[in-house]
Write a structure and sequence with these properties.
The chain has about 325 residues and is α/β, with parallel strands linked by helices. It has a single domain, classed as 4-Layer Sandwich (Metallo-beta-lactamase, Chain A). Helices cover about 30% and strands about 25% of the residues. It contains 10 helices and 14 strands. A 7-stranded mixed beta sheet has the order 6-5-4-3-2-1-14. The radius of gyration is 20 Å and the shape is globular.
Length: about 325
């Protein structure tokens, strides 16, 4: 399985502003020596190694899981538009089996769907999955006359909507897919995808921080043995306590949950739109410090999701 992140933000897409760009350039130039600016090659080397020459990204939730002629897409936030561009470029838009798995139907997780080019390809089959049974009805609302110029019934593709049940894994395109009911306004579902002994868990938009003692075991059981675990860690500790009941979590509870779990990597996801790159980096540093104290024996790594982040889990 090959995994790539196309959108990392929660609630609202957050494009980089001119002010943000200037701040990054200032930080980049402050760390440069005269030798770093002496040639195009030296400048490129500076750019390649500097954290100030990168961004976590501003698109909302979208992950790609690809294997053996199939593309699984986790959520259809604004990041799905760039995924569509890639699929068109490498030919997979016409050759791969496309499956979209939706955690829930808040705007930031579906607003990219009308811009996903394959839905306009005549005869192209697209399967959409959810823990809710009213998938098609909810997507039709987004593409009604008040919201979008192209209506659902005018789409050229052949779209099939499916209801996933909790419980045993379901076989889909050669992979096993399980869902987990989560704590979020209007309901959300987490996903676990397993194939050939490798797996990813996607647990965004859930408020585990409100009642961690009751939720630790179900979540730990769900992720056990997974290679990559992507979690809703929208807020730092203090920010969360100002936003209880918003449906989101802090990374610190996830570290507590999984301190004894056999996972490969825990990924901070669904970044606050008010958090710039420096704030996300600081949250990651704080989380790593907390892990050193609260989970010193944990063998998994910890990262903050960024657009373009990839994992190759083999075939």
């Amino acid at each position: 399985m090959h995994i790539r992140i196309w959108g990392v933000r929660g609630s609202l897409a957050t494009p980089m502003t001119t002010k943000d760009l200037k701040a990054k350039l200032q930080s980049l130039l402050k760390e440069a020596s005269p030798g770093d600016l002496s040639s195009p090659e030296a400048i490129q080397s500076l750019i390649d190694r500097s954290p100030h020459a990168a961004t976590y990204g501003g698109n909302t939730s979208c992950l790609e899981v690809s294997f053996d002629g199939s593309v699984f897409i986790l959520d259809a936030g604004t990041g799905i538009r760039n995924l569509a561009t890639q699929l068109l470029s490498d030919g997979r838009a016409t050759t791969s089996n496309l499956h979209i798995f939706l955690t829930h139907f808040h705007w930031d997780h579906i607003c990219g769907f009308p811009f996903f080019v394959p839905i306009y390809q005549p005869g192209r089959r697209l399967d959409i999955w959810s823990g809710r049974s009213d998938v098609e009805e909810l997507l039709r609302v987004q593409m009604s006359s008040a919201h979008f110029p192209v209506k659902w019934d005018k789409l050229a593709s052949d779209i099939h909507c499916h209801h996933l049940e909790e419980g045993p894994a379901q076989q889909i395109a050669g992979a096993e897919v399980r869902i987990l009911s989560m704590i979020h306004p209007d309901k959300a579902f987490g996903y676990r995808i397993d194939r050939n002994g490798r797996s990813i868990c996607y647990l965004t938009d859930t408020e585990v921080s409100k009642n961690p003692n009751a939720l630790a075991k179900p979540y730990a059981d769900f992720v056990e043995g997974a290679d990559v675990v992507v979690v809703d860690a929208m807020y730092g500790f203090l920010e969360y306590h100002e936003k209880i009941n918003f449906g989101h979590s802090t990374i610190y509870n996830w570290i507590d949950f999984f301190k004894d779990s056999r996972i490969g990597e825990l990924v901070i996801f669904h970044h606050d739109p008010n958090a710039d790159d420096a704030a996300v980096t600081q949250l990651l540093r704080s989380a790593r410090s907390y892990k050193d104290i609260a989970a010193p024996d944990a063998r998994w790594s910890l990262s903050a999701a960024y657009e373009g982040q990839e994992w190759d889990l083999g075939k």
